[in-house]
Write a structure and sequence with these properties.
With about 100 residues, the protein is mainly β. It contains no helices and seven strands. The chain has a single domain, classed as Immunoglobulins (Immunoglobulin-like, Sandwich).
């Protein structure tokens, strides 16, 4: 499953993945967070950043900052489960486009 998320410019984004929704088997838990990843841009820059990441037995969450208005980023997360499986989920993060408002409106 890939989700689409809109991030506001200049604000941090907190995002939670719940692995119980179609990924974990009954009685299976997350034992290791293998990390969140944002591939570099074609120019080698990494303008969207992961500023924090955590997990518990069923969820992974991350906090993102930065990003270029209008740009899309593919972000993925991997975990290892109590049954030795490695699971992966991805989301698409789009940075909102900033528009200048006209004075008097």
């Amino acid at each position: 499953m890939t989700a689409y998320v809109l991030k506001q410019v200049g604000k941090r984004l907190d995002y939670v993945l719940d692995w119980r929704s179609g990924y974990l088997e009954p009685l299976e838990t997350i034992i290791d967070d293998l990390g969140w990843e944002i591939p570099n841009s074609p120019d080698g820059k990494r303008d969207l950043r992961i500023t924090e990441q955590h997990h518990d037995f069923y969820r992974s969450w991350a906090e993102f900052s930065g990003g270029i208005p209008g740009k899309f980023y593919l972000v993925s997360s991997k975990v290892r489960t109590s049954r030795g499986r490695v699971l992966s989920q991805s989301i698409v993060v789009r940075i909102a486009i900033v528009t200048a408002s006209k004075s008097g409106e």
